[in-house]
Design brief:
single chain, 322 residues, elongated
């Protein structure tokens, strides 16, 4: 078999160059000179007897032969990286870095971390509040929980949860300034956690798009918008995943029975080579198990949760808790 395989270093140079479409970037990644990369690729082409790249100025493009070879080489290197991770990362001890959507991290994951810590006391967690897809490639991040459309490429991902959106408000605010119909929202400050798309979706379903001309604040993310609502600064959009505990504790109430599907979903994402690391598998399995348990309890009566249902033509007011 050894006689049928090209040397390892030329294959590394080929894979890095193909991925970056640049000899210079490949040289930087592998910490060698531009000339060394060029020499390795020429040696590989001579060994195989085919041309692997077309040179166009500073860029390179795979030939049909190169395009045929790349998937096999990439898969082989991914397999080596995964095996290395399994060997060097213990199954239930060590460090684990998790990047998570700020609202989900604060309102859903953190309250449940006690069960993970109890099961795996030797795993040291680093939690990063972020919804930046760049974290997928960040070497200091092991696994991400992202809110988005799932369009990330060259990584492992699995949808963790969809979610429904509905207005939420503090009991104090709604008692002082009642919300009996959608039109009453005109007397309140609308708190946005995004660029306005999600409130637009809910107001469209409620036949209240003209209310978008009222007072509003854009607060950067859902966590900040929800916190502002808890403090009585306006009406925010809660969701069926992160707002449940605040509703149960009576810190927020949901004045309407109308909910709409969110624009995006929650996904668990990581680099391909990290998926098979035992410590990552433990966390991912725990995350899905916790969600399954939460879903199994969702039908039980919860104090402060006000009959949220998917799109209905009429809006029903429910009483606010004092």
């Amino acid at each position: 078999m050894a006689k049928r395989l090209p040397p390892l270093n030329p294959l590394r140079a080929f894979e890095a160059t193909a991925r970056h479409a640049s000899l210079t970037k490949a040289a930087s990644e592998l910490n060698v000179t531009h000339g060394a990369i060029s020499h390795q690729i020429k040696a590989l082409e001579q060994s195989l007897g085919v041309k692997l790249f077309e040179r166009t100025g500073q860029r390179v493009k795979l030939t049909p032969h190169g395009a045929e070879l790349l998937p096999a080489v990439s898969t082989a290197f991914d397999g080596i990286a995964a095996a290395t991770q399994r060997m060097t990362r213990p199954a239930s001890a060590g460090t684990l870095s998790v990047s998570c959507v700020p609202a989900l991290l604060l309102l859903w994951m953190t309250p449940r971390l006690g069960s993970f810590m109890a099961q795996y006391p030797d795993i040291r967690l680093t939690l990063i509040p972020s919804n930046d897809a760049k974290d997928i490639r960040a070497p200091q991040v092991d696994v991400c929980v992202l809110y988005g459309d799932g369009s990330w490429t060259d990584c492992w991902m699995r949808k963790w949860s969809g979610l429904e959106l509905f207005p939420v408000v503090s009991p104090t605010l709604i008692n002082n300034r009642p919300i009996r119909t959608c039109r009453d929202l005109a007397d309140h400050v609308i708190l946005h956690g995004d660029d306005g798309r999600e409130w637009h979706t809910w107001l469209a379903a409620a036949d209240g798009l003209d209310l978008e001309r009222g007072r509003r604040h854009h607060l950067g993310d859902a966590r900040t918008a929800i916190e502002a609502a808890v403090h009585g600064h306006g009406v925010a959009l809660g969701d069926s995943v992160t707002a449940s505990m605040l509703l149960a504790r009576g810190l927020l109430v949901a004045p309407f029975s109308l909910s709409v599907p969110a624009v995006d979903d929650f996904y668990v994402v990581c680099r391909n080579e990290m998926r098979s690391a035992p410590i990552v598998q433990l966390f991912v399995d725990w995350l899905f198990a916790e969600k399954e348990q939460a879903d199994s309890r969702a039908d039980a009566p919860v104090a402060g949760r006000m009959g949220i249902r998917r799109k209905r033509p009429a809006l029903r007011v429910v009483g606010a808790k004092s």
